[in-house]
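Practice problem: predict the structure.
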Amino acid sequence: MRNLFHLTWRELSSMFLSPLAYIVIALFLGWNGFWFYVFLSSTFGEITDTYNLVLGGTVLFWIMAMVIPAAITFARISSEKKSGVLEMTMTAPVSDVAYVLAKFLAPALFWILLWLPTAAYAWIVKDFGASPELGRVMAGYLAVFGVGFVFIAVDLFISALTANGIVALLMAFFVNFALVLLPLGIGRMIKVPEVEKIAGYADVFQQMFVFGRGVVDSRALVYYLSTIVLALFLTVRAVEVRKWR
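Answer:
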C-alpha cells in the first residue's frame, strides 16, 4: 500500500512538472465557465438545469470527455516502453498491479481535480438568489467521474499495447469515441430486445440523463466498475507480457 501511494504521488507530481497540465486546467475551467454562463442565460437562471447541461448534457462535454482522458493517459506506459524505463521499473521491488494502479490513479485524480473547481459555480451564483438541487448535481458529478474513469482505464490499456505515443493517442481517441457512440447506434439500429438491453446497459448518454435527474443508477455503477476492473486487468497482463519478452 505504501508503494502504491508513493507511485501514485510520483505519477501525479510528474503530470504537473510540465506547463501543459496548467494550460489544460486553465483552458478547461475557462471553457466550462464560459459555457456555464451561456447555459445559465438560456435556462433563465435555472442553475440545476445549467449544471445538467455542463455535466454531460451537451456535445461539448462529450468532446472533453473523449479528448482529455486520452490526452492525459496515452503516454503513461507507452512512453516508458519506448524509452526503456518500463524494463528498469519491472526490475524494482514493485508489483505489476501496484504499477498499473498508480498509472490509473494519477490521471483519475487529475480528472477529479479538473472538475472540482466547477462546484464553485453554485457558490458564485448563490449571491443572485439561485440555488441548485444538491442531489441532482452530486449525482451528475458521480456520473462524470465514472465515465472519465472508464475512459482512463481503457486508454491506459491501449497505452500498454504500443510504444508509439502517436498510435496510442489516436487509438485512445477512436476507442473513446466508440464507447460513447457504439452502444447508442447499436440500440437504435438493431431492434432486438436482448441487444437493445445490452446496448442500453452501456449507453453513457442514457446514464448521464438518469444521473442528471438525481437518480443514482446501480446498473451504471456496475458498468463503470466492471469496465475499469477489466481494463486494468488487461493492462496488468499486457505489462506482464512485456516483462517476459
